[in-house]
Design goal:
Layout lengths: L7 H11 L3 H13 L3 H22 L14 H7 L11 H18 L15 H13 L3 H21 L4 H4 L5 H15 L4 H13 L17 H20 L8 H14 L16 H10 L8
Helix pairs in contact: 2-3, 2-7, 3-5, 4-5, 5-6, 5-11, 6-7, 6-9, 6-11, 7-9, 9-10, 9-11, 10-11, 10-12
Bound molecules: iron/sulfur cluster (SF4).
């Protein structure tokens, strides 16, 4: 296949060889791989965008609380704080990005429809970052799709060379991966070079290396929902750094190798089992008792 890549080095090589952006390589590769037309692949990504948008739209209006952890309604609160920006430290773009991320993650917690991009647990970061920044740029739908294709290329490399599964690699593989993907996608939307996109992804992912998966009661709610919101700030920051000319000392491929190394050495207590960290605090154990789950340890 002409456009196949498994590493960032190969991806950059293809952008140079064909003189195209990362989003174009990702689109062409998907078209080749699926044996579908480019128009079909674009259409699929538009569907993804529309489902994400609907989750954001519903989530920012919802005050629905989940049954077990009582999560929910935070997207509504934060989105409404946009009316009193003078009393907030974040700006319009970051507060909106966080509320959108909360919106999607809260929809996930109440069984609403979301896109697991890259996973259900990390589904809030990419729409949060890309939609909020697209509103800021008054970007057309085409530019938004470019960001999404670039994000998908980064996700593919992580999946190929490490993992996108919390059961294998902890939360670095869910929220961490989503931060890297969003940072690169946003950087291409800002007309960053392919190298800048990879620097943004590396800076983003490095900041999440080693993050454990420790959901209360094994439910994708606490700390997952707020972790998505904070992830948007990390992605925007990583993109700002890359766009300022700051480079990642460790190239993206090596950051992914590092993530894989951590995953191989990570105790199963921190890989989606709810047997460590926040999941075994008193609060975590109260959720377990409510769910009728066995409590084995408390910290
Ligand atoms: S804590 Fe675990 S379940 Fe929650 S987002 Fe992270 S990886 Fe997913």
């Amino acid at each position: 296949m002409k456009y196949e890549f498994k590493t960032a080095e190969e991806l950059i090589g293809l952008t140079k060889k064909y003189k195209i952006e990362i989003s174009e390589v990702a689109k062409m590769y998907e078209s080749e791989r699926a044996n579908k037309s480019v128009a079909f692949v674009r259409g699929q990504m538009k569907t993804v965008r529309d489902v994400m948008y609907e989750a954001v739209r519903k989530g920012i209006k919802s005050t629905h609380r989940s049954e077990w952890t009582g999560s929910g309604g935070d997207a509504y609160k934060l989105y409404n704080s946009l009316k009193k920006l003078g009393s907030m430290m974040g700006n319009k773009v970051t507060i909106r990005a966080m509320s959108y991320a909360l919106a999607v993650s809260e929809q996930n917690a109440v069984m609403g429809k979301i896109v697991a991009f890259p996973t259900a647990g990390g589904a809030g970061v990419i729409p949060g970052v890309l939609f909020s920044c697209a509103e800021h740029f008054h970007a057309g739908k085409r530019r938004l799709l470019k960001g999404m294709f670039t994000a998908s290329a980064i996700g593919l490399i992580i999946a190929e060379r490490a993992s996108l599964s919390a059961a294998k690699a902890g939360c670095q593989a869910e929220v961490g991966a989503a931060v890297a993907m969003a940072a690169a996608g946003l950087t291409e939307m800002r007309s960053g070079t392919p190298e800048q996109c990879l620097d943004a992804a590396a800076i983003g992912l490095k900041s999440y290396l080693g993050l454990v998966c420790d959901p209360l009661g094994g439910l994708v709610e606490v700390p997952c929902i707020k972790r998505n919101a904070i992830g948007t700030m990390a992605a925007i920051g990583a993109s700002d750094m890359a766009m300022s000319g700051i480079k990642s000392k460790v190239p993206f491929d090596q950051v992914v190798s590092s993530m894989n190394n951590i995953a191989k050495n990570m105790s199963s207590k921190f890989r989606e089992t709810a047997l460590g960290s926040l999941a075994i605090t008193k609060t975590g154990n109260d959720v377990k008792r409510k769910l009728g789950l066995k409590v084995t340890e408390e910290i």
